[in-house]
Amino acid sequence: MKSSTFVKWKSRFPRCFVHFITHASACNLSTKHRPPQAEWGKNISELLFVIDTELKLLKMRIRGNLPTIPDKPAKQFCWTGKATDLVELLYALDTCDCINDGEIGVEELADAFSEIFGIEIKNCYNVYMNMKRRKDDSRTYFLDELREKLNKRMVESDQKGGKFKKR
Q1: Which of 87, 95, 103, 157 is the most buried (most CB within 10 A)?
Q2: Which domain of life is it from (predicted)?
Q3: What single string gives the DSSP state of each residue in the chain?
């Protein structure tokens, strides 16, 4: 069973709190198996060494001397459907408050989806107004297509014994 000791240290930098996390097993500080009081100094000195090392690393990072670990490159996704389909999906997600409990607007969603899918989404409201002008039984062509194809996939999966066909 691993237990951790959390040490909170307020730095000299304004409004900067550094939380040092060390595994208690590394410093023999577990609460169940405390060493005799005579060995506490050794454990404290080990903990102070960890804190001192973390401070040095933090100072190096602030000065720019310590390279940050590069983030894993994001996988590129490309929207291959029509831009109007994406706007229809955005408005549906916005209407159902599916993202951030509805605390985000269509324009912010459009910006995020533009970044994710590498597509420029312009004039969302104009596209929405064009969707409203559609005269057919349903004005949500893309959402209808999504529902139809997903239901078809489920029926086909049921007919094959519930196996999910990977693409």
Answers
A1: 87
A2: Bacteria
A3: ---EEEEEEE-SSTT-EEEEEEEHHHHT--SSSPPPGGGHHHHHHHHHHHHHHHHHHHHHHHHT-SPPPPPPPPPP----S-HHHHHHHHHHHHHTT-SGGGTS-HHHHHHHHHHHHT-----HHHHHHHHHT--SS-S-HHHHHHHHHHHHHHHHHHHTTS-----
